[in-house]
Design a protein that fits this description.
mainly alpha, 3 helices, 2 strands, Double Stranded RNA Binding Domain, two-stranded antiparallel ribbon, 2 domains, 110 residues, 11% strand, single chain
Length: 110
């Protein structure tokens, strides 16, 4: 399937899946709206480059914020685990800790 979108007064034909056509048209409309903010510049390529740089800047800023959020979630999860372990208190002494239980049973029954 092909979607036809209008950008800078030109029809652009894009190959896409039927489910993507509406999204591509919405994106093209959003791009046209951003390009309208640079109406004073007659050079369409320059306007397109400016909008592209603006969009890339937004994507990078959003990605950085997302990475910071993920690190904060990880830090908070670590604090939560530490608090739960502290609330449980120390583990009781167990001399069988780390040993294979099946071997003790086999040894005791032999």
């Amino acid at each position: 399937m092909q979607a036809i979108v209008r950008i800078l007064g030109h029809d652009v034909v894009l190959d896409c899946a039927p489910c993507d056509e509406r999204r591509l048209k919405d994106l093209a409309g959003a791009l046209e709206a951003r390009l309208a903010g640079f109406e004073g510049d007659p050079d369409a390529l320059r306007r397109l480059a400016l909008v592209s740089l603006q969009l890339l800047d937004e994507v990078q800023a959003t990605s950085a914020a997302l990475a910071r959020s993920r690190m904060e979630i990880e830090r908070l999860m670590d604090l939560l685990v530490d608090a739960k372990l502290e609330a449980e208190g120390p583990e009781p002494a167990d001399d069988t800790r780390g040993r294979v239980g099946a071997l003790r049973v086999a040894h005791g029954s032999a």
